Amino acid sequence: MIPEAREVHLSRKDRKVLEACCRSPVTLQRDLKRARIVLLAADGRSTRSIAKEVGVQPRIVSLWRHRYADHGLEGLQDKPRPGKQPIYTKTTDKRILKLLDKPPPQGFARWTGPLLAEALGDVDVQYVWRFLRSHKIDLVARKSWCESNDPNFTAKAADVVGLYVAPPAKAIVLCVDEKPSIQALERAQGYLKLPNGRALTGQSHDYKRDGTTTLFAALEVATGKIIATHSKRRRRVEFLDFMNSVTATFPNRKLHVILDNLNTHKKNEDWLKAHPNVQFHFTPTSASWLNQVEVWFSILQGQSLSGTSFTSLKQLQEHIDAYVNAYNDRAEPFVWTKKKVRQRRFKGRRITQL
After folding, report:
1. Each residue's pLDDT tens digit, 209-234
2. Phi/psi at 210 (nearest 5 deg)?
């Protein structure tokens, strides 16, 4: 049943707006039909005749007649629709985050999506994964860090960085450290041809140990060149022997040597008195990453030692010596890019073992 037709009275302003809407080529069809309905109704047309001309059902004409009569042009706009109520809300998100702060179930090393969904009870695992992705939370990736508790961190770090950024005039700055227990591993190596014709290079899983060597290295900050020697052990005696060879390489030169806090690097006052041109600078506790020679050790591992096979300890040592010679031919100094060193405490953020 069609409701009783409402009279429509148009003001001049509203008529101009509706007529402009009908003439505009970018007007949506729904808005065009509503404008025509109101204009025809204002001309005194009946509901059925308007419906036939516009091409809609009579109840639609009646709807827009009433809407305009009650609310004017604003009544021709769509009302906001509530839509379907979301199943999961911000409260659900807070529950997931709160659960992540708790230890995983007994016997498990970490939380997973299914474990979180099971613990929540009323949350689908797919929503858990979507929430974790949206907040960039990776349950598998792990980062390691080392927090220095050295009370003199700022002073020591500034001292070391100062040697990198503004080395003393007419002095040599060296970064010294050891890479202990480099193993001479003998592995079967070669190429493996797959059934699809693809060839892979690799090595066997089993290996034979042919001894270990400790590499003492000094990196000259100004040039990037390396001085290296091998030793069987990593004691104070071997360290001072290496330092003797380093001082012999730079006779009558002032040497600033950057070291970490290894016990064998400290309490060498007698040797320092015998070598007044040498000054030791120590990185802060648990901050040996400030020593640039650690970067070179990483390069050595990646470019020279990983994926290689040695049948004897001598072959390993000769291999490293050959790499050092090749590296020195194209050596370039590392560029220190950190402008400021700040000491920042991690109050309330230390993780304790549960």
Report:
1. 778 889 999 999 999 999 999 999 88
2. -120, 30
Residues in Cβ contact with 57 at an 8 Å cutoff, skipping those fewer than 6 apart: 51
Q: SS3 for 201?
A: strand
pTM tops 0.85, yes or no: no
CA separation for the pair 341, 152 (Å, rounded): 12
**With contact defined as beta carbons under 8 Å apart, do 33 and 56 qualify?**
yes
d(CA 270, CA 125): 66
Joined tokens for residue 316: 């390993």
pLDDT at 190 over 60: no
Query: Nearest 5 degrees, angle CA 333-CA 337-CA 338?
Result: 135
> Terminus-to-terminus CA distance in the chain, angstroms?
73
pLDDT at residue 151 in the model: 87
- Minimal CA–CA distance to 133: which of 110, 109, 115, 113? 113
C-beta separation of 290 from 163 below 8 A: no
Extended beta strands in the chain, E state = 171-186, 189-193, 199-203, 208-220, 226-231, 254-259, 278-282
Q: Which of 28, 27, 36 is nearest to 61 (CA)?
A: 36
C-alpha 48 chain-centroid distance:
67
Total Cβ atoms within 10 A of residue 321: 14
pLDDT band at 341 (very low <50, low <70, confident <90, very high): low
Does pLDDT of 353 surpass 50? no
